Amino acid sequence: MPDWMPRDEILNPVTDVEREAVRTAQRALSVRETGLLDDVTKASLRGIQRLLGLPVTGVLDRVTADALERLRPPGLRE
């Protein structure tokens, strides 16, 4: 699991660490960095999950975070 992902699944980010994890995912998805799992972020998560053959949930989970991390260029990985 990437260092930036604090737990297995984030449904509603409430801590600073969780919001930062969502912002990191948003950066990887090229959507506005709000730190919230808003509709745009959930739709982008579903899109990348579908594209990569992952369970389509719209949730930032460990499997999706791992996939996003692998897609990032090595120099940009955290």
Automatic annotation (TrEMBL):
Signal peptide bounds: none
Protein name according to UniProt: Peptidoglycan-binding protein
Domain of life: Bacteria
Lineage of source species: Bacteria, Bacillati, Actinomycetota, Actinomycetes, Kitasatosporales
Pfam families in the record: PG_binding_1 (PF01471)
InterPro entries (alphabetical): Peptidoglycan-bd-like, PGBD-like_sf, PGBDSf
Positions of the Peptidoglycan binding-like domain: 21-68
